[in-house]
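Running log. JK asked me to keep both predictions on one page so they can be read side by side. First protein, sequence followed by its tokens:
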Amino acid sequence: MAQTERRLVTAHLAVFRSPDPPKVVTAAEVLLTVEAAALSGLRWWQRGKRRTAHRAAISEAERIAKAETEDWAAYYRRLRQNDPTTILAALEDAFEDNEHPAAPIDCQDGVATIVVMFDPVSAIPDRTPAVTPSGRPTLHKRTEKDRHHLYGEAMASTVLATVKETYATCQWLQDVKILVIRKDPEPFAPAGYLTAIYAGRFPAERVARIDWPRVDPVEQLVIAPDALLYRSGPQRQIIPLTLESEPELKAVVEQLRRDL
């Protein structure tokens, strides 16, 4: 498999770092910086003032260390309690460098809702690297069915990677809802510019049992609770969801259309 194709379908194998546990910040860790600021502008011969500044720096370092320790403990406590504001901010930071944009839009009672923006099928190359019988590199035209198959694998891998990163960042969430939005630069109608193409839930206990090196991402999308995924035609292409019976999802998509 070519490197580009491998990257598309292995996003879920990435390793995501969880937040460090609360740590005790000591005065010694901040004293050097605080003392340098306190002594700034004092000459070496101003010994009395330097002694006074040094004592003040020690006191200030102790205050800062205590405040930072308490702040970190409070932040960690809010994470454990699934505080909505803290969860949303933490996930926004975590998703900032994602190849496919993702955004947390809600967190209630330990359930986070994430919107993932995914490419149209045209982003999948229509040719794939191959080798001629004589061993020379070449390109083979990919069939439409193979193209849509690769597209589904890439989307599934991206969804699982987003779920994996969400739980790594916010370990005490109980469930993650995913809504995948596709932006089509050449829609048949204005409403088709932004459409939902997948929705599903990924409860923490299910995700914890995933064997990541061996998982089939597409299968996980299909068997996820409340999964919505429509395919059409012999090419099995992924088509927009019909959301008339899903008013909450429909409202999210309509709001995104207004915001863009």
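And the second, directly underneath as requested:
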Amino acid sequence: MRVVIAGGHGQIALRLARRLTEGGEVAVGLIRNPDHGHDLTEAGATPLVCDLEQAAVDEVAAALRGANALVFAAGAGPGSGIPRKDTVDRAASVLCARAAQHAGVRRFVQVSSMGVEREPDEADVGDVFAAYLAAKRAAELDLRDRDLDWTIVRPGRLTDDPGTGLVRLAPAPLPLGSVSRDDVAEVLARLLGAAHTHRMTLELVGGRTPIEQAITDLAGR
């Protein structure tokens, strides 16, 4: 399987690339900064410079040709302001979804966030985080209307704790919680081939169920 990862230098993306390549798959990471290519190479992935804030649909579609799946793991990051929450977390996802359709890449796994379904009070979360949630919500709405085999994954609060392989993964909503980036990457890797999760919106936190079993349990839901 050839998997293209948008936001290829992100913390989850690098973990996912390493997991895929160790499993014999081919991972290609889309990056904005060519200086980040070495980190992708170390993770076993092929870096491909493609600035999703500037690229046209045809350019991204060309990067996707020959791929079996696209994982959208891009994000503007905690240090960015409101404008980039829109250009990366929303617009880049929309661009990638359009490009996937142009390139004939049906499998699309989108990394979103818990909390997107509720209208946040800016006084409680701040205007930047409110903009982030609004951008993720808009990206989800766009993807659901497309003829793609999509799965949306909403992780809880992300940690750098070592993965446990034990999660709670279910259609929204779940109670708020945390989850390690290691476990998120493992879930994403296993979802790629899980056809029974097509067109599902899933929330993900740490739990007591082995990842493989948690994904199997989604059949028929």
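Observation for JK regarding the second prediction: The radius of gyration is 16 Å.
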